[in-house]
Fold this protein.
Amino acid sequence: MDVTYYPGCSLGASAKDYNESTKAVCTALDIRLNELPEWTCCGATSAHSLNAELAISLPILNLSRAEESGNDMIVPCPLCFNRLKRAKEAMKSYINIHDLGSFLGQDVILDKINSLLKFPLSDIKAVCYYGCMADRPPKVTGSLDYENPCSMDKIANTLGVDVKPWSYKTDCCGASFSISRRDIVYTLVKKLYDKALETGAECIIVSCQMCQANLDLYQENISAHFGEIYDIPIFYFTEMIGLALGLKGVHKWLKRHMVNPVPFLEERNLLR
Amino acid sequence: MNEYKDILKVESGFAKRVASACHVDIHACYQCQKCTNGCPVSFAMDYHPHQIIRMIQLGLENEIKTIRSIWVCASCETCFTRCPNEIEIPVLMDYLKQWVLAQGEESVEGSITAFHRAFVNNIRMNGRVHEGSMMGDYFLRKSIEEKKIDINEIFINLKLGLRMLKRGRLALLPERTGGKKAVKEIFNKVS
């Protein structure tokens, strides 16, 4: 299967682990990712905050390029996905745009994952945290389960993870406020930690690199700020797939986390 | 009766002007408060979404200029997803941010405005956002907006940046893209 891959700006740097694990997982699943040539920033939150015309022109530029190949487009970053979907509507593009989580959560892909499963992750209790942009607003994303998305839950279940249900799947993490208003992110993320732990979960699985950054990079700061000790590994769902399929490079991705997940995984005999 | 005349200045036609400028159906709001109740950042707001809509409906143009909420809105789209009348509040918030800046008013949330400007400036310069230089630009703008240098904040981010660099999560140089020229053209065309 040939698809166009639009990584987005974060995946080159702060979300390198997401980029690496996505590429490894897609290779294992025979999904050939062709990075969109000469892709440029989608504009994210800041563009639409300052200028509506700029905000729609930036993703339209990328979608016009994608029409040169015509393949379906896979987008790991939910914010880029959201902006590109709006561009699709604005320019009436024929390109099918998928957010990575929903794409890999399709039954046909889950069957493939199941057939390649080597090391079931049965000793992991986790909640799946989706964030905002992959499902909201449904008018833009086309999501049907926007109050209770399940694609990551299905993937995690297939991998053998003990997935805990919780009511905070799509509660905002504060996104870019981690730089301009860290206090807001601290409050939002502490709530997510507490609610996740309440379910009995020991780690959080995410499908958005902004969420991963807010939950992982600042965990020590948040612990200090509230006088608590949080030690909750934050995994990309693609890293979980990589672990369960025994893919090469897992160690490299995991070493990039701020909250070290290695002891957590070694305790459960999941690191080879 | 003179002492009452300056309490609330009502701009008639304000609601109509805003609604037609941003294509948001402000008049359809009947204050059910679903937006405010679902808003994750309502704790950080001075006026809540349903109150802001009510203020616009009532023509309180001056009061809108100094509201923090329009900046603190996280664009999470929860309000719009749940509004029974499909009032696109996130678009309204964006419009109000742009409207406040277009009036020449200073933003009441200097660091948030500085961040957006630094981000967009980086897109213009590199075609993609280079997080490293964007942060530098952000702190410069933030210092100018707030008229002080937040040494503590800079130090915390430098420390984080170094730890990220150690883990390979920080690129020292921007990625190059052939699309940079097309992006510059977009910036030139857009008002």
Summary: The domain at 108-267 of chain A is CATH 3.40.50.11810 (Rossmann fold). The two ends of chain A are 30 Å apart (CA to CA). The longest strand of chain A covers residues 125-129. The first helix of chain A runs from residue 16 to 28.
